[in-house]
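Researcher: Let's do a round of design. I'm pasting the structure tokens now; please hold your answer until I've finished.
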């Protein structure tokens, strides 16, 4: 059997008696026109090594294989093993590897065997943010990420300072990556339809990505600042240096976290590291 000869996704799900599991945050994307568009938006180089998290019935997996990518699909739900094994058997030999594991525990560098790796996924709703933070701040840096989230989460990733969606996720994402929302997907496109729309965000690493030490400082500072976002910085950052730290960074101690742009937080991280080294 070839990819072209595979039954439609809805038929494949019915044949295996599979339904989405709410506990895993599953919503299936069965429209191959949409999954092919996501694969195109990923702008993958020829023969790219791709990690897909939460393939479920394999709609996006099929679209990625059609691009010529070499895909490693990481799926936590063992119920999909027979269906995904059918897909692997239909694909060109060696182009689809299945890993039945929790993506939060996965070693991505090992999965792509030292090659530059691209992430393309319709992420499960309940772990999407946690996975993004892992990929933005962990030891392995993906060559690109094209990821679908709930629209509200996608808006938080790309938000500008002094907007309602701006917060810790925006600062960390934009300090490490160029992040752009590239596609919106209505709830009705999914089976079962979620209560909210979704959106696809594409992220590529910044050339001036912060060092691990600076990134660790940024995570600590943003956790404190946005953890008490109604408070002025001098109060929310009191335990990390308070007014002296904020003034050393050239910022207003009376400002609130949501008014400080990404560059401001990076300057704050530098000042905090300098104070620690001096002390």
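Researcher: That's everything. Go ahead.
Model: Designed sequence:
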């Amino acid at each position: 059997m070839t990819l072209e000869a595979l039954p439609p996704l809805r038929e494949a799900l019915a044949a295996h008696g599979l339904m989405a599991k709410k506990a895993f945050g599953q919503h299936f994307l069965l429209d191959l026109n949409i999954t092919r568009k996501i694969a195109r938006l990923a702008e993958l180089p020829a023969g790219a090594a791709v990690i897909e998290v939460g393939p479920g019935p394999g709609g996006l997996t099929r679209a990625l294989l059609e691009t010529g990518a070499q895909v490693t699909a990481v799926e936590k739900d063992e119920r999909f093993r027979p269906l995904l094994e059918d897909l692997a058997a239909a694909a060109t030999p060696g182009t689809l590897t299945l890993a039945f594991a929790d993506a939060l525990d996965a070693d991505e560098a090992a999965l792509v065997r030292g090659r530059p790796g691209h992430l393309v996924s319709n992420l499960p709703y309940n772990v999407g943010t946690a996975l993004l933070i892992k990929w933005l701040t962990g030891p392995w840096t993906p060559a690109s990420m094209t990821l679908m989230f709930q629209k509200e989460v996608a808006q938080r990733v790309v938000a500008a300072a002094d907007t309602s969606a701006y917060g810790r996720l925006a600062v960390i994402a934009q300090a490490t990556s160029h992040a752009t929302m590239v596609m919106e997907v209505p709830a009705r496109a999914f089976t079962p339809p979620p209560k909210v729309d979704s959106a696809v965000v594409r992220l590529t690493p910044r050339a001036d990505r912060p060092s691990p030490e600076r990134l660790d400082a940024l995570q600590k500072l943003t956790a404190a600042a946005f953890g008490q976002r109604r408070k002025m910085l001098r109060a929310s950052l009191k335990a990390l240096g308070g007014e002296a730290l904020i003034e050393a960074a050239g910022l207003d101690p009376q400002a609130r976290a949501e008014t400080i742009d990404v560059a401001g937080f990076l300057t704050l991280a530098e000042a905090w590291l300098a104070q620690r080294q001096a002390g």
